[in-house]
């Protein structure tokens, strides 16, 4: 009964955020989330396993290689079910023992089969009667040194990925720290302190309480009572399956039972109330997440309103789209293209001026070209005189002076043509560029809102400029000479 009431109170909030996450809006709007971080082998997977009730990939090295969104949905009326989705894949399955394989398969697809990591998301939704309503994001564990075959900077890559998530104000940082290490030196807690110095949105889970050195229990008690590194959301100690229990195939349900016995018998920890056990942790996480969502809702609503306003502004600037009816659509398309053709013809005649007057621009080019021709004329006379004199001097036989061989003159003309080639090609290029620029600008202007037509006219224009014979625009202008 109490569970039902709790579910009715929390599920709608968690569902709302999950649905928003499904819409892929996280680039524009940060969503409240619990993100799990910890050093390698701190016990992250073990905690997630007991929370979700299923075995996740485990082993040495980097096991979690992509962010994994673990959506836990409590549903007492239906059998166990899971859906894993990543890229364009979505696979539904009903056997809990397959979770590990599917997660591994997804990681291989996104991050390759080696030890690489990726920032692409995998979503695993588990519906079961034994889970609490909760959504968690599991991130790769912080690695200190690269293993053989891993990129040198793997540690940096993982830290960047983690910081990306935990630096957002909307994220609750769930730091997993083993009880049997000096917690102040753990990389995960240091990173959390870096982005949340007040400890306002950090909750720490202390794992492996069964491995504490006898005599060190008081240190752990000080931590749990918030006397060492104060965190507003506090600390919870949990005991998960040790390696031996895993090797012996102790079930997760039995491990929870074992945890209860462990704490009941523990002289230092048994009176810690809601600061111990997986059960308390899961209730606390759900409550923390829902409180956090409730707190974030007004700000999210403001953000959405701002975005909406932005989008409305953009929409209002857009022209109405093409008609839906196929016949109307065709007419509409013909109209736009005809309009474009008319504008091109008008522009090429100089009837309308788009950007700058093409004829004014071209006149300047032709003037330069004319200048070039004129200069070459004086060169030509000088060159002919020089060649004729040289021939007379060196090669003349019984011809009259000045009556040289035809090939001598041909040579002179050829040399002159060679000197004119470069300026001629440059003039052609300048004029082609001018046309292309205006053509492109006109197409952009006329086909605004029709990127395909813009693209198409660009391709057609490029084709034409490489086949000058068919470059209608130039042809047209050539048949309407520009008067200098
Ligand atoms: P992760 O790398 O952070 O995901 O760490 P794992 O969950 O894979 O745990 C690393 C090792 O610590 C495994 O061998 C676990 O069995 C062991 N472990 C995790 N939690 C506990 C615990 O509470 N007690 C004991 N004794 N071992 C634990
Ligand atoms: Mg792990």
From TrEMBL:
Residues 28-298 form the Dynamin-type G domain. PANTHER family: DYNAMIN, INTERFERON-INDUCED GTP-BINDING PROTEIN MX-RELATED. The keyword Nucleotide-binding applies. Its main location: cytoplasm. Keywords: Cytoplasm, GTP-binding, Nucleotide-binding. It is found in: Cytoplasm. This is Dynamin-type G domain-containing protein. InterPro entries: Dynamin (IPR022812), Dynamin_GTPase (IPR001401), Dynamin_GTPase_CS (IPR019762), Dynamin_N (IPR045063), Dynamin_stalk (IPR000375), G_DYNAMIN_dom (IPR030381), P-loop_NTPase (IPR027417). One of its GO terms (molecular function) is GTP binding. It comes from the Eukaryota. One of its GO terms (cellular component) is cytoplasm. SUPFAM superfamilies: P-loop containing nucleoside triphosphate hydrolases. PROSITE patterns: G_DYNAMIN_1, G_DYNAMIN_2. Belongs to the TRAFAC class dynamin-like GTPase superfamily. Dynamin/Fzo/YdjA family.
């Amino acid at each position: 009964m109490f569970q039902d009431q709790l579910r009715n109170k929390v599920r709608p909030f968690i569902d709302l955020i999950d649905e928003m996450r499904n819409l892929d809006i996280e680039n524009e709007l940060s969503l409240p989330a619990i993100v799990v971080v910890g050093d390698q082998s701190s016990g992250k997977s073990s905690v997630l396993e007991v929370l979700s009730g299923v075995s996740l990939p485990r082993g040495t090295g980097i096991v979690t290689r992509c962010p994994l969104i673990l959506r836990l949905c409590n549903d007492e009326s239906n059998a166990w079910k899971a859906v894993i989705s990543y890229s364009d894949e979505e696979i539904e399955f009903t056997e809990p023992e397959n979770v590990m394989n599917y997660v591994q398969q997804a990681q291989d697809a996104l991050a390759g089969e080696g030890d690489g990591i990726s920032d692409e998301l995998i979503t695993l939704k588990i519906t079961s009667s034994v889970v609490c309503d909760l959504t968690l994001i599991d991130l790769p564990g912080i690695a200190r040194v690269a293993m053989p075959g891993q990129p040198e900077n793997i540690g940096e890559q993982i830290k960047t990925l983690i910081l990306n998530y935990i630096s957002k104000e909307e994220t609750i940082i769930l730091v997993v720290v083993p009880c049997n290490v000096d917690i102040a030196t753990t990389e995960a807690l240091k990173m959390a302190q870096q982005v949340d110095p007040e400890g306002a949105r950090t909750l720490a889970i202390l794992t492996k309480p069964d491995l504490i050195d006898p005599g060190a229990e008081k240190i752990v008690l000080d931590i749990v009572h918030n006397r060492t590194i104060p965190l507003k959301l506090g600390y919870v100690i949990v005991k998960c399956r040790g390696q031996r229990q895993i090797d012996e195939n102790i079930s997760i349900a039995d491990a929870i039972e074992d945890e209860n016995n462990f704490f009941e018998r523990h002289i230092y920890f048994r009176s810690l109330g809601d600061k111990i056990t997986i059960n308390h942790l899961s209730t606390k996480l759900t409550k923390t997440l829902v409180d956090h969502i409730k707190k974030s809702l007004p700000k999210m609503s403001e953000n959405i309103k701002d975005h909406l306003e932005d989008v409305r502004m953009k929409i209002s600037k857009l022209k109405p789209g093409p008609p839906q009816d196929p016949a109307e659509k065709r007419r509409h398309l013909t109209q736009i293209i005809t309009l474009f053709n008319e504008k091109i013809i008008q522009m090429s005649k100089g009837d309308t001026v788009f950007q700058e007057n093409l004829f004014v621009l071209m006149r300047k080019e032709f003037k330069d070209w004319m200048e070039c021709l004129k200069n070459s004329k004086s060169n030509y006379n000088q060159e002919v005189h020089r060649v004729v004199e040289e021939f007379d001097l060196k090669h003349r036989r019984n011809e009259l002076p000045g009556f040289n061989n035809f090939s001598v003159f041909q040579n002179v003309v050829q040399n002159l043509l060679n000197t004119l080639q470069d300026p001629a090609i440059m003039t052609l290029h300048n004029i082609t560029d001018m046309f292309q620029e205006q053509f492109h600008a006109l197409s952009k202007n006329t086909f605004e809102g029709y990127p395909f037509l813009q693209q198409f006219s660009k391709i057609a224009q490029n084709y034409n400029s490489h086949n000058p014979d068919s470059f209608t625009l130039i042809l047209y202008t050539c048949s309407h000479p520009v008067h200098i």
